[in-house]
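Dear colleague,

Thank you for sharing your sequence with our group. We've completed the structure prediction you requested, and as agreed, I am returning the results in plain text so they can be pasted directly into your records. Please verify that the sequence below matches your submission; if there's any discrepancy, let me know and we will rerun it promptly.
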Amino acid sequence: MFLFSQGDHLIVTEDLYGGSYRLFEKLFQQFGLTFSYVDTSDADLVRQAIRPNTRALFVESLTNPLLKVADIEKLSALCKDRGMLCIVDNTFLTPYLLRCLDQGADITVYSGSKYLAGHNDTVCGLVAVKDPVLAEQVYFHQNGAGAVLGPQDSWLTIRGMKTLTIRLDRQQENAQALARWLSGHPKVGKVYYPGLEGHPGHELMKRRGRGFGAMIAFEVIKPQLVDQLLMKTQLISFAESLGGVESLITFPQVQTHADIEPETLERLGINNLLLRLSVGIEDKDDLIADLAQAFEGENA
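Please find the predicted structure tokens below.
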């Protein structure tokens, strides 16, 4: 955000991570930046949102938590044509599954705390920049603002990246199995996972990437089941992080996306029935059994 100046406008993914929304709306808006939130899985909507003072598109390659898929190649071409930067938060997919810079993006950002480090034991952010001149600008701001990772956190992240592909292969295998199981469960109303053939972004991800990731969102059929699943799973932990070797379940409406206005959450479908599941490397049959026993608890 330090690349931009007072009066600049950015287009942003509408169902994005709540922390990014908080950064834009609570911090950088006071310095004169403005933001428009659109469905970035639709390039036409992005095109319609461009203003004369639009300087960048900030897009999640796979959105948090509804797992919509963005066509990075098409959006990058649009940005280049309009003289805008294309910035991609690729945290959910990592460079292993989607190489955004190769598809035309100018900048990719990652919560390295998640899949890259992979063990829920460090806090890390990463920025990768395609153009050397732009990279120097980013580095200047990083150095000036003091956003520098400590040696121990750097070591933990490098250690985790050595096993990234092995972990993600297992996590994706597990996620595919869990998504199919959830799709057939009578107490589940919707399942959001791009690895399912009926997902709107399934074919695009098959063409552009190397996999579908290991994040699942799903809606249960009644609110009482939310508390039941959060409290009664035994192998799957109720916690906010994601991307580690342990499976975690969260309630986005009151956790990760609590800073977004209630009417916006409702419009987007981030409601009181939606749960987000970060699938780990445990045995998939054990994970399914854990969810099954939680669904059949005393409040079912």
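Summary note from our side: The two ends are 46 Å apart (CA to CA).

Kind regards,
the structure core
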